[in-house]
Amino acid sequence: MDQLQQPPFPDFLCESLSRAGLRGDWFSWYKPDEMPEPFRGLLVHEVDMTSTLERHHGEHMILEVLADGRAAGYYFREVILRGAETGRAAEFGLIEIEVGQFPEDLQEAILSGGIPLGGIMNESGMAYESRPLGYFSVAREKLPTKLSALGNGDTFYGRYNQLMRPDGSCLARILEIIPRSSDS
Fold it and tell me: Using CB atoms within 10 A as the burial measure, which of 17, 22, 55, 164 is most buried?
């Protein structure tokens, strides 16, 4: 696999990475067609991860919020998406949400932390586009212990994604990491 240059992280996302115990230079970036399966199928698409993981795992995803807060006009949170029936970790997400871009009723749902953002947007029928900016791998040894729910394995894969309104305004930026167990 050819390593690519890291896509530029906005300053506020760099701050979120730091809060989460991560560093941008820990990620090795790849072209979409160089991502190994099954991660290519789970990550290389223009659909939200909530619905993708629900289809893949055959169960509804629930949200476990590890940390959240507000900074520079954004609502940020670190989350684990888990299968509602099995409790199995399906994704770690580091997300910065431009809450002001959402209707008031959706803002309340987002801030309550009970439902994944993709689920909220899909249930509401809100129009949006998923626009991945890059795909990466990260060594397990680099991940903080709070991500032990992702399981074992030497390498994890993920993507850096944006959720956009049809008019091009940004709704959210997300760093998504999939555990090895997703290939089962």
Answer: 22
Place of tokens 């949170």: 77
- How far is CA 181 from each of CA 142, 150, 151, rounded to the nearest angstrom? 18, 8, 7
CA distance 178 to 9: 20
CB-based burial, 80-95: b 16+ in 10 Å, e otherwise: bbbbeeeebbbbbbbb
- What's phi and psi for 98, nearest 5 deg? -85, 80
Q: How far apart are CA 140 and CA 150, in angstroms?
A: 9
Q: Which of 101, 118, 108 is nearest to 166 (CA)?
A: 101
The tens digit of pLDDT for each residue in 81-91 reads: 999 999 999 99
Q: What pLDDT, on the 0 to 100 scale, is given for residue 9?
A: 62
Q: Does domain 11-183 have CATH number 1.20.210.10?
A: no
Residues 10, 54, 130, 38: is their CA dihedral positive or negative?
A: positive
Domain locations along the chain: 11-183
Is residue 120 within 8 Å of residue 50, measured between CB atoms? no
